[in-house]
Design brief:
By secondary structure, the protein is α/β, with parallel strands linked by helices. It folds into 3 domains: about 140 residues, Rossmann fold, CATH 3.40.50; about 110 residues, Serine Threonine Protein Phosphatase 5, Tetratricopeptide repeat; about 160 residues, DNA Cyclobutane Dipyrimidine Photolyase, subunit A, domain 3, CATH 1.10.579.10. The protein is about 45% helix and about 10% strand. The protein is built from 19 helices and 6 strands. The protein has a 6-stranded mixed beta sheet, sandwiched between helices. α4 runs parallel beside α5. The chain starts with a strand and ends with a helix.
Length: about 450
């Protein structure tokens, strides 16, 4: 473990409360941070570049660059507004906290909930360590409106179909009124008045990425026109909120209030889909690697490596599929409508395991969210909760005609489309459809 903590004089007699930044990289409307600042102890802001997550990532991973820049921005804000700064570490969280407990008189640790399987194991290890020292580990709901067991069916089971979950979600929101916004109090005097050295990105084993995470858009016009534009990849009709919700650079509560103000049900439903998949992952963590519908694990996937490589390079011969993959490879983003087509093509036209596609998206997507990625890939394969039936197979040609009729999006990313320089279709649609139906039916009957 390499720590980047440089100490000057500290009043250890007073003790400190630690706020552990994770997927909540903001000061405003941060639930756990607000609680820490009210603890009565000077707050030491900590961020850990977790080697369990970072090991194996490419050195120019755009998400690491994004996180690093946001942490640096937070540090600059703390320095300018409160004379404090963040203590930044690189290592395994439990080992980092071992060091923190040696360097500081820690009275309490605050953080926000994280729901992914690894995060739950990580937090349990840190909580166990703190418990042996009599130190409380206080965590809070922050990245969702409803979590864990807050929305259950009448029989106490979790929802596995979206529509009744969505209705329950909206009814619960009406019953509870609007969510509380935790405005950041005055920073002066509430953070530990110390300066810490911020490591260079190179000290973490990374370098700046040429791919940038774009700012999100959530102005009134976009929200009002969301339903009309969101399915057409050539239009600028989506919010780009994904990475910002993933890493907490924006508050989901403040996003929700803007959406409610414009009364846009389509965008509200997308926020609810996000929470639906999060509660599925919470209740069914095995779905990261196993089909939710167990019988779908009987499908004899072809898993042709050469065909998988063509798919990854955007050389399938189907313009809209290839445009989506190439957009992903170059920018870390793929339009949501195109994601469904690209995923369906891999699973059903090529009969390649959804887990292969999920892993590739995990490597490339700037807005990679484990719960949504697994949920949507299993939806495309037919194996997940509330999934598309296995006989629903997107036709990549009719999808292109419907959603990119002018070929603006396709030709932006596949400029050779329609010329002799474009690759042939790697599979016949009719044959692939019949093969998929036969394969699925044999496995599932």
């Amino acid at each position: 473990m390499a720590g980047y903590l440089h100490l000057t004089s500290i009043d250890l007699n007073k003790g400190v409360a630690i706020f552990w930044f994770r997927r909540d990289l903001r000061l405003e409307d941060n639930t756990g941070l607000s609680a820490a600042l009210k603890s009565g102890y000077p707050v030491l802001a900590v961020f850990i570049f977790d080697t369990e997550i970072l090991d194996g990532l490419p050195e120019d991973d755009a998400r690491v660059s994004f996180i690093y820049n946001k942490v640096r921005d937070l540090n600059n804000t703390l320095r300018d507004t409160s004379g404090s700064s963040m203590a930044i570490y690189y290592g395994r969280p439990a080992e980092v906290f071992e060091g923190l407990l040696k360097d500081f008189d820690v009275r309490a640790v605050y953080a926000n909930h994280d729901y992914e399987p690894y995060a739950r194991e990580r937090d349990a290890a840190v909580a166990g360590l703190l418990n042996t020292r009599g130190i409380g580990f206080h965590t809070f709901k922050d990245q969702v409106i409803f979590e864990k067991d807050e929305l259950l069916k009448e029989d106490g089971d979790p929802y596995v179909v979206y529509t009744p979950y969505m209705r329950k979600w909206k009814a619960a929101l009406d019953a509870d009124c609007l969510p509380e916004i935790h405005h950041a109090p005055s920073y002066q005097g509430r953070f530990l008045q110390q300066q810490f050295t911020i490591p260079d990105l190179s000290e973490l084993g990374f370098k700046p990425s040429p791919v940038q995470v774009p700012d999100y858009e959530l102005h009134a016009g976009l929200i009002r026109n969301y339903e009309d534009k969101r399915n057409f990849p050539a239009m600028n009709g989506t919010t780009r909120l994904g990475p910002h919700l993933r890493f907490g650079t924006v508050s989901v509560r403040q996003v929700l209030l803007k959406v409610l103000k414009e009364k846009n049900e389509s965008l509200l439903n997308e926020l609810i889909w996000r929470e639906f998949f999060m509660q599925i992952l919470w209740h069914f963590p095995n779905t990261v690697n196993e089909s939710f519908k167990k019988k779908y694990d009987r499908i004899p996937w072809r898993n042709d490596l050469a065909e998988f490589e063509k798919w990854k390079q955007g050389e399938t011969g189907f313009g809209l599929v290839d445009a989506g993959i190439r957009q992903l490879n170059q920018t870390g983003y793929m339009h949501n409508r195109v994601r469904m087509l690209v995923a369906s093509f891999l699973c059903k036209h090529l009969l390649i395991d959804w887990r292969w596609g999920e892993a590739y998206f995990a490597e490339k997507l700037l807005d990679y969210e484990l719960s949504s990625n697994v949920g949507n890939w299993q939806w495309a394969a037919g194996s997940g909760v509330d999934a598309a039936p296995y006989f629903r197979i997107f036709n990549p040609i009719t999808q292109a005609n419907k959603f990119d009729p002018g070929l603006e999006y396709t030709k932006q990313w596949v400029p050779e489309f329609g010329t002799d320089g474009y690759v042939d279709e790697m599979v016949d649609h009719k044959m692939a459809r019949e093969r998929c139906l036969k394969t699925y039916k044999a496995a599932l009957d």
